[in-house]
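Course assignment 3, question 2. Fill in each field.
Student: A.L.
Task: Predict the tertiary structure for the chain below.
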Amino acid sequence: MSAANAIYHIRKLLVETGPRQTALTLGRHLYHRAFPVKYPVHPFDLQHGVDTSGLIGGRRLSSGRIHDRHITAYWGTAPSAFLEVFALWNESLSNGPYSSHDYVFIDIGCGKGRALMLASDHSFSRVVGVELNPALVSIAKKNLIKWKASAHTCDDIEVLNADALEFPFPESPTLLYVFNPFDVHVTQLLLDRIQAVSLARSIPIDIIYMTPEHAHLFTVVPNLQLLGEGRAPPTTEEKAVDAFQTQSLGYCIYRLPPPHR
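Answer field:
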């Protein structure tokens, strides 16, 4: 990269994410350029014989599409954090007209599919992964072949090689799982799309937003309800293989009810 390009990208990061996140991003980039790391296999993979480990930076996830430069990275969800946040979301349904049986779970930027496998052990009507990168889609599909060799609560699982801004929403209550896959620009576009889809529905769209770096965008969405927020600590085993030495994962849980008619 030329000096001019480097300056352009740094300025762009400063505008989009602010000085603190820019410093963190540049620090990680320089560190991994100087000290390439082979990440250990995650305990989830050792237990189930699948491949969901590793950290893949956004620049290595090019698909040839216009929004490639807005991808953050691939890094699999900590299973313990997923289960904790899922339980909180499930509790939010206790006094409503729907149960998890009625919902389709959709992982936006599903990567290698770890969250899909975790979700399939719960009573969703369907589990869907949306992933733009063909190589990650291929890995996720191979993982699901192994995963489906044993019984799970939801056996209707698929991965779509599709754009998060274009895939078809199901005609049923929907839970979107968003593990910070995009920068602020595409996160805003995704929210715009969710709002537009919601206006034509009579059923809710729920969102679990993990590592919610751009939660400020959600606060201005009309009628969006914040059901819960907090931090979920990984287990000791998960921390031992964590690229970022994460002590806890932030989360926000939202519900966008259908518009009043």
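Instructor remarks: The radius of gyration is 18 Å. The first strand starts at residue 55 and ends at 57.
Grade: pending
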